[in-house]
Design goal:
Blueprint lengths: L1 H50 L32 E6 L8 E6 L3 H4 L3 E3 L10 E6 L20 E5 L3 E7 L4 E3 L26 E9 L6 E14 L11
Parallel strand pairs: 2-3, 4-8
Antiparallel strand pairs: 1-2, 1-5, 3-4, 5-6, 6-9, 7-9, 8-9
């Protein structure tokens, strides 16, 4: 009996140690990995951008006027799978929040930053530019997702242009199979969830719900509010 008790106790200690190590891995080590990976991706982008002077910008957003000498039609995106092509800023999440956006939403991609749904529109183009990110682990990019509110800015740059999107309403909760949330004109299962009923230039952000689970999804939608060339400096949303 003494041997059985000792063996059981040792087994409990071993299991407990493994659980602690697993939690440390989730809460700490994946964050260290993400910080290193995202930092490298942003450095790669900025190095590439600095080597190529901006020349033209995208089509102006509704209600804005293109600057003289700029084209009014965006060049087709040629995003490479798994490669970064933009940096996203969300002022609501703090001044230090900046994350690279990579092409694709596979597990490996989301360990290095945010992922662009490859089937959706290019950044700034007509359609729905949809992006996914982890709520928890790997840097917790969308940890504060529920704090997003109508009117909040989501700012992105591709090295030549700043794109400022404005969120339409607070996050919407849905199920993983609700693929209509990333349609060109978002069509979620709850038809009243978006204010969009015609083609436009939209942004969709998605993440897991609940915070430490994945049974549901949180989604926000935004519309393109303004664009400006990077040579004009940062957009107002990043100074407010």
């Amino acid at each position: 009996m003494r041997v059985v008790v000792r063996t059981f106790s040792e087994l409990c200690i071993t299991v407990g140690t493994l659980i602690v190590l697993f939690v440390v891995h989730l809460l700490f080590w994946t964050g260290v990995q993400a910080e290193d990976s995202t930092g490298r991706e942003i450095e790669r982008l900025r190095a590439d951008w600095s080597a190529h002077a901006p020349t033209t910008g995208p089509e102006a957003a509704p209600g804005t006027t293109p600057a003289p000498g700029r084209t009014t039609t965006p060049a087709p995106a040629a995003y490479e799978p798994g490669e970064p092509f933009a940096v996203m800023y969300i002022p609501r999440f703090g001044t230090g929040w900046d994350w690279p956006v990579l092409q694709g939403t596979g597990t490996g991609v989301l360990k290095k930053g945010l992922g662009h749904y490859a089937s959706t529109a290019a950044l700034g183009a007509t359609g729905n530019f949809a992006v996914a990110g982890h709520r928890r682990t790997y840097g917790d990019p969308f940890k504060d997702f529920p704090e997003l509110r109508a009117g909040d800015a989501v700012v992105l740059t591709d090295g030549t242009t700043w794109f400022t999107y404005r969120i339409e309403r607070k996050p919407h909760r849905t199920v993983p199979g609700d693929v209509g949330v990333i349609d060109a004109v978002p069509r979620p299962l709850d038809g009243d969830a978006t204010a969009f009923d015609e083609p436009g230039r939209y942004l969709t952000l998605t993440t897991c719900e609940p915070e430490w689970g994945s049974s549901h999804r949180l989604v926000v939608w935004a519309h393109l509010d303004a664009t400006q060339p990077v040579t004009d400096g940062k957009p107002p949303a990043l100074h407010s």
